[in-house]
DNA sequence: CCGAGGATCATCT
DNA sequence: GATGATCCTCGGT
């Protein structure tokens, strides 16, 4: 509670700039990701992201369009979700120009609304662990893989203005082997909801 | 606190 | 046939 309240500045715009992928990853911090479900709104402030820009060897789009990554080549604001390790889903927001193939991976949220629903979806009670990783947040919000290819809002998933972070940390990305030296991970300094330090 | 190992399967080579 | 934008548990320190 105190973590978001300590940053009182509201986002000036009604939607974030998604034109430049690396900048978008930074810009998305503090925005509220909302899933409007029949049971109610489930939402969290974005506290950690990673950019997967054009020509990035670590990007799913690096070797061109395929069945799996087709959504990455759609308009910015398109949802791209994929299954990893045969069991987890991750959520991306497509960025940049159509046909290029870029996206931002949302890695962690600070729970904001529908926390009881998150706990039910996760089968957990510890608020710290509800949304502290890319697959955990998908499960907490109850997002489905077939949201892939739809635009934000069409899948009842959308962004709302949140707060402007006081401190943004930029580091290398997590869990990848290719282009591991690129500093394309961003997270909010001091947040206790980040996946890893 | 930390590292190792396993779960589990669609996608790509 | 191998891999992977992960997560959880377990054992050691």
Could you please describe the fold and organization of this structure?
The protein is an alpha+beta fold. Strands 1, 2, 3, 4, 5, 6, 7 and 8 form an eight-stranded antiparallel beta sheet that branches. α3 (115-122) packs across α4. The chain starts with a helix and ends in a 9-residue tail after the last strand. Helix content is 14%, strand content 29%.
Offer a quick outline of the entry.
The protein is of the alpha+beta class.
Largest sheet: 8 strands, antiparallel
Mean pLDDT: 95
Helix residue percentage: 10-25%
Number of helices: 4
Low-confidence stretches: none
Number of E-state strands: 8
Distance between the termini: 20 Å
The percentage of residues in β strands lies in 25-35%
Rg value: 15 Å
Shape assignment: globular
Please name the defining characteristics of this protein.
197 residues; alpha+beta; 8-stranded antiparallel sheet; 4 helices; 8 strands; DNA-binding
Topology:
Layout: H1 2-5, H2 21-27, E1 32-37, E2 40-52, E3 79-84, E4 88-95, E5 102-113, H3 115-122, H4 134-141, E6 157-160, E7 168-171, E8 185-188
Antiparallel strand pairs: 1-2, 1-6, 2-5, 2-8, 3-4, 4-5, 7-8
Helix pairs in contact: 3-4
This protein binds a DNA duplex (13 and 13 nucleotides) through strand 3, strand 4 and helix 4.
